[in-house]
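Task: sequence design from structure.
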């Protein structure tokens, strides 16, 4: 006979339990609840006669839409197993719901399948939301927190939009009928472009009016496009499926309704910043041009003053250039002047000499001799008569006196 270890036994027992017991629903009261730092839940599920240990791991526990506490009556969707290291029989819980919700959930699934078969949830029949609604209607309770959330969201995103509130109950046995009637009234009044059907979070029982057939058909019959924002993101109702758009929360419904205005406002702000930037740049360029032109634009008096200054400057430059030119010529002429001085004769000495030469010349001047009574005798051929030997009797001789002359005939020749 084979002998098993404790580990082998517990392993076989666990395998047999998980094989024989598929996932099932177990009802009981929560006790000995422990929340581990890891996020896992450990608790006991009990009734009047028995109890069983349960473990709900973090990945499942964080999906709970409500807070688990001791004393709550719950229904656990769990896997029967054995914790091998301790040999303890336990349930690994996959999901929890409040006790009694199984009937409601089954009713939800039955109505969902029925309306889906009719095509009530088809995308083809759903209306397109207006991009820029002029008025927004809200079907909700005036005392609901959802009303404040929607008003606050619209105030941030599209504060110019008027809001029309159609009050109704959103919880209780009479709520479904009131919601349907209010949707009908809003559709007939035709006062707004889109309707928000909103309610805050709650249990399945709290949200049940939105799972009633009368509400689903009122949504489908309403001529206005409807956005449903019911409960939290994990809550899905028949009204959500029938509406033209589903929003995760009432605030998200307001964001969907105002998306066009919000985007337009964002784009307008972007265009405004771009326009401001372009305008600033254009102004800067124009200001630089004005500065440049301003520097070129000179008052006539300033221009005249500048011209005078320029002329004075040019005159100074001309005078300086003339002085430099004269200085260069003076430098050139100075040695020439010195050479001229050295080469220039003594006029007084030359004048005395000239006077002596003039006197000598005057003494040799025939006219001076003529003036003293002498005469010049010329032969017919004009030669001067210097000797009597040149003469012959009867020769014509011309006599020249200091004043005038005379022609003579030689009568007698007188030797020395």
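Answer:
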């Amino acid at each position: 006979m084979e002998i098993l270890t404790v580990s082998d036994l517990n392993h076989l027992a666990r395998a047999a339990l998980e094989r024989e017991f598929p996932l099932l629903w177990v009802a009981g009261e929560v006790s000995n609840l422990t929340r581990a730092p890891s996020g896992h839940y450990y608790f006991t599920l009990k009734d009047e006669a028995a109890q069983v240990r349960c473990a709900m791991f973090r990945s499942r526990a964080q999906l709970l839409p409500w807070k688990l506490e001791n004393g709550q009556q719950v229904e656990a969707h769990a896997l029967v197993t054995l914790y091998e290291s301790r040999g303890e029989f336990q349930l690994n819980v996959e999901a929890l719901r409040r006790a009694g919700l199984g009937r409601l959930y089954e009713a939800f699934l039955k109505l969902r399948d029925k309306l889906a078969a009719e095509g009530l949830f088809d995308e083809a029949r759903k209306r397109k939301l207006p991009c820029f609604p002029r008025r927004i209607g809200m079907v909700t309770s005036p005392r609901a927190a959802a009303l404040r959330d929607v008003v606050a969201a619209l105030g941030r995103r599209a504060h110019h939009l008027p809001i029309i509130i159609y009050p109704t109950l959103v919880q209780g046995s009479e709520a479904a009928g009131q919601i349907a009637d209010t949707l009908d009234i809003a559709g007939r009044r035709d006062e707004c472009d889109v309707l928000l059907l909103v309610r805050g979070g709650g249990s399945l029982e709290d949200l049940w009016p939105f799972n009633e057939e009368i509400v689903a058909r009122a949504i489908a019959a309403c001529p206005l496009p409807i956005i449903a924002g019911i409960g939290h993101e994990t809550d899905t109702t028949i009204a959500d499926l029938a509406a033209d758009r589903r929003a995760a929360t009432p605030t998200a419904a307001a964001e969907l309704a105002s998306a066009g205005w919000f985007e337009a406002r964002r784009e307008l702000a972007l265009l405004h910043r771009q326009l401001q930037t372009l305008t600033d740049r254009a102004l800067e360029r124009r200001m630089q041009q004005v500065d440049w032109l301003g520097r070129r634009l000179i008052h006539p008096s300033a221009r005249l003053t500048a011209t005078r200054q320029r002329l004075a400057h040019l005159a100074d430059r001309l005078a300086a250039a003339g002085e430099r030119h004269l200085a260069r010529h003076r430098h050139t002429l100075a040695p020439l002047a010195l050479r001229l001085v050295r080469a220039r004769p003594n006029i007084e000495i030359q004048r005395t000499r000239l006077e002596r030469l003039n006197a000598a010349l005057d003494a040799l001047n025939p006219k001076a001799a003529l003036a003293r009574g002498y005469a010049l005798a010329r032969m017919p051929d004009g030669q001067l008569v210097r000797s009597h030997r040149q003469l012959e009797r009867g020769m014509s001789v011309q006599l020249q006196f200091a004043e005038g002359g005379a022609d003579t005939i030689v009568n007698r020749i007188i030797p020395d």
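The mean pLDDT is 86.
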